[in-house]
Amino acid sequence: MLKGFKNFLMRDDVITVAIGLVVALAFSNLVEAFTDSVINPLVSAMQPDASGLGLGYQLGEEGSAATFIDLGAFISAIIYFIVFMATIYFFIVLPYKHIQKRRGKTVFGDPAPTKTCPECKSEIDPEATKCKFCASPQPAAA
């Protein structure tokens, strides 16, 4: 039982994913610091009359953070997501695709072409005329 678990953990793709996850989590802190220190002040400066709360709308008592719709934080979260995902793509996914291509494997490629079964409308292999369920003989109705 433990030998199977060890074999599972020692597969190339599991180790690669684990390393990528650790790098992504470490980089997440860097991107968060960038958005908190650079992007948030820039977005907050767009609406200076919000009692120091930033870009957004006050619904209740003036200056209360509890009733402030903070659009600046939302914009920062979107920028954070875009920067983070772009970094993951360019520094982890593209090099991984390149390494796997050199090994003769295709990862993150286009899906295999399919066509639709004329009877049940499910996706089938391009060379097939019907899916395996429609092509098999149907039991006689009793």
Could you describe the 3D structure shown?
The chain has 142 residues and is mainly alpha-helical. The protein folds into 2 domains: 1-47 and 64-109, Non-ribosomal Peptide Synthetase Peptidyl Carrier Protein, Chain A (Orthogonal Bundle), CATH 1.10.1200.120; 113-141, no CATH class. The protein contains 4 helices and 4 strands, in the order ααββαββα. The chain has helices spanning 2-9, 12-44, 71-102, 132-135, and strands at residues 56-58, 68-70, 115-116, 123-124. Helix 2 (12-44) runs antiparallel to helix 3. The model has no long low-confidence stretch (mean pLDDT 74). Pfam families: MscL (PF01741). Keywords: Membrane, Transmembrane, Transmembrane helix.
What name goes with the CATH superfamily of the largest domain? Answer: Large-conductance mechanosensitive channel, MscL, domain 1
Biggest pleated sheet:
2 strands, antiparallel
Order of helices and strands: HHEEHEEH
CATH class of the largest domain: Mainly Alpha
